[in-house]
Write a structure and sequence with these properties.
The structure holds two protein chains of two kinds. Chain A is of the alpha/beta class. Chain A has 13 helices and seven strands. In chain B, strands 1-2-3 form a three-stranded parallel β-sheet. The chains are: A alpha/beta, B mainly alpha.
């Protein structure tokens, strides 16, 4: 039997990143340490996917700025990247679709890198194509070569699965069942309790990795925006280039916080109207 | 590491006077030194003091601290009463806390601190950001990432010099804290 190869892992974080903070960046580092400590994984990439303007969240400033701030924040990271596919779509995109898109990208880039290999690896390539057609509810990628993709988030996202009309049940099933979730939390027990109280989450509990953050670092973007509105310093809460960018462009004012104030959040709009 | 961390700050600087002293120095001694230094610089840069330029033009010096610092005043033998009187009464404290009642309680429970309530400024930090150096050292010992908790330049420095290991954490393990040792000698 072949020796246990490490599973390659890619972590995808979706969210407003309005603005990106050191806490968001910490999530990636914590998740990577968690998986690599097991000795069974190698985290090869992190992807930050800011939500599109179509999400219509109150106070959500333009995606072009949020993308640029995320890029500035990850300038000196050798593994965390920013992806604009989601924010470039004309309408809001369900998280499950974003995950699916990035997973497909991973598979096709594996295929492309396999194009010019010798015949020895042909067997592996055939296996990849077989994997693609495996039915929806099974785990993906037993082939150690193709990275797994997991959704990285905070406990608040996990708990948002319970908010009516915010998520489609089949999307939750797909995200936790087919891909997997890495949940960073201060208080592991709340996340675990929530998983226990949800049948679909409980069923896929092996695929939900709860990572406890011992260094309390709750830099909420809401607080950051409030401080900025009041002319207070946010130095050392966000990376310096992001602080400068915000100052240079005078982002985050009382006015920007009122954006979308009277508009319904896209998922609620979409799912409520189809009921 | 402090210098590296503050390279990009245009107003916060690092001073090594205290660390250069042969023995541990009481906080009040450090404050007296810095106040003397500030006052001297201030007068040097101005014309000789006259009636129109009273001493109150010299900037005030205050001690900046966190909530846990307020609790140290109650540790037996750690502070001399007249030192607390001078640090809090003559100079003043600026205490940054998470918004808990901890500093208020510390003031309330001390007659000395309560007397000087007016020179203790409590600053509430609503963004919870308790990056404890103890946790940082723990993470480093275990080979975990501390990126985004410390400036990159400080992380690089720590790696280059291999600071914070099992060994370094054991330093002074069986030694008494100097202020307590000094107090014991004086008793």
């Amino acid at each position: 039997m072949a020796s246990q190869e490490k599973t390659k892992l890619v972590l995808l974080a979706c969210g407003s990143f309005n603005p990106i903070t050191n806490m968001h960046l910490r999530m990636f580092e914590l998740a990577r340490d968690h998986f690599e400590d097991t000795g069974r994984y190698r985290v090869v990439k992190g992807i930050i996917s800011p939500v599109g303007d179509g999400y219509k969240k109150k106070g959500l400033i333009g995606a072009c700025h949020r993308l640029e701030m995320a890029r500035l924040a990850t300038e000196n990271s050798d593994w965390i990247t920013v992806n604009d596919w989601e924010s470039q779509q004309s309408e809001w995109v369900e998280t499950a679709k974003v995950v699916r898109h990035h997973h497909a990208e991973l598979i096709s880039s594996e295929d492309n890198s396999n194009d010019d290999v010798d015949t020895v690896r042909c067997g592996k390539r055939r296996k990849l194509e077989q994997n693609k057609s495996i039915c929806q509810s099974s785990y993906i990628n037993t082939n150690a070569d193709t990275p797994q993709l997991k959704l990285l988030c905070g406990a608040d996202v996990l708990e948002s699965f319970g908010v009516p009309n915010l998520w489609k049940p089949e999307d939750i099933e797909e995200i936790v069942g087919k891909y997997g979730v890495v949940c960073i939390t201060r208080c592991g027990s709340d996340a675990e309790k929530f998983i226990n109280q949800s049948d679909v989450l409980y069923e896929h509990r092996k695929n939900i990795h709860v990572v406890r953050e011992w260094v309390t670092n709750e830099i909420s973007a809401t607080h950051v925006r409030r401080a900025l509105r009041r002319g207070q310093s946010v130095r050392y809460l966000l990376p310096d280039p992001v602080v400068r960018y915000i100052q240079d462009h005078s982002l985050y004012s009382a006015e920007s916080e009122q954006k979308n104030a009277d508009v319904i959040l896209a998922p609620l709009q979409r799912y409520t109207s189809t009921n | 590491m402090a210098r590296l961390a503050l390279q990009s700050s245009d107003w916060v600087s690092v001073d090594d006077w205290e660390s250069q002293q042969a023995d541990w120095t009481e906080t009040v001694v450090t404050m007296r030194y810095h106040y003397g230094h500030i006052a001297a610089q201030y007068h040097h840069s101005k014309d000789p003091p006259t009636n129109e330029q009273p001493a109150s033009d010299v900037p005030q010096l205050k001690l900046l601290c966190g909530a846990d610092f307020m609790d140290t005043f109650k540790v037996p033998g750690l502070w001399m009463d007249d030192h607390v009187e001078e640090v809090v009464g003559r100079f003043g404290l600026v205490c940054v806390s998470r918004g808990s009642l901890q500093p208020d309680r510390a003031i309330h429970e001390s007659d000395l601190l309560s007397r000087h309530r007016q020179s203790i400024f409590l600053v509430r930090e609503w963004v919870h950001n308790e990056i404890s150096a103890t946790e940082i050292r723990r993470a480093l010992r275990r080979g975990h990432s501390v990126k985004y908790l410390l400036p990159d330049s400080v992380i690089d420095y720590i790696r280059e010099h291999n600071l914070y290991t099992q060994d370094s954490e054991m330093k002074n393990k069986d030694v008494k804290l100097r202020p307590l040792a000094m107090q014991a000698i004086q008793d």
